[in-house]
Amino acid sequence: NPGNMAQDLTEKELLKMELDQLKKEVKNERQMVSKTGKELKEYIESMAAEDPLLKGVPEDKNPFKEKGGCIIS
């Protein structure tokens, strides 16, 4: 059972896994949120015109548009 995998490991094995993960994470280059936040905002604003969640999808291009209607008799 994959959900119980952590229970099957010894405390030493769990600590080794955690240490290995921290060793990987410490190598990641860190950046200031003030810089990355500004870059993210600029990217989002530059892509807004093409975002279907903001501008919608034309009916003829909508793959999820219902093909037929419902007839109640």
Task: Describe the protein in words.
The protein has about 70 residues and is an all-alpha fold. The protein has helices at about 5-10, 10-25, 35-45, 50-55.
User: Helix coverage percent of residues?
Assistant: 40-55%
Largest sheet descriptor: none
Helical segment count: 4
Order of helices and strands: HHHH
Q: Roughly what fraction of the amino acids lie in strands?
A: under 5%
Q: Structural class of the secondary structure composition?
A: mainly alpha
For the CA atoms, what is the radius of gyration? Answer: 25 Å
Gross morphology is flat
Number of strands: 0
**Could you tell me the mean pLDDT?**
87
Report how far the terminal alpha carbons are from each other: 51 Å
Would you identify the regions where 5 or more consecutive residues have pLDDT less than 50? none
Region (Disordered): 54-73
Subcellular location: Cell membrane
Keywords: Cell membrane, Coiled coil, Lipoprotein, Membrane, Methylation, Prenylation, Transducer
Membrane topology: Lipid-anchor
